[in-house]
Write a structure and sequence with these properties.
mainly alpha, Methane Monooxygenase Hydroxylase, Chain G, domain 1
Length: 91
Amino acid sequence: MAHTTSAKKRHRQNVKRRAQNRAVRSDLRTHIKKLLKAVKDNDAEKAKDYFRVVQAKLDKCAMRRYLHPNTAYRYKSRLAKRMAVFAAAKN
């Protein structure tokens, strides 16, 4: 446990930031799951909407460093490939 005042403050800040980071990443994962479920259920409209939302959330997470930018781009790339396959299968 921290002893100095500055170390105690740093610990409080880290706890708060960790909770915020976890909440943001959890929300992102929830939206990704919703997108994948929409694709699995062959719901093109929902999938398209969720894909747009997930892309925006991934960009925001990368910009704010909740995720490493390359990780966000990798997610986007893989989801875009799935959406392309899904769109091709629908036609």
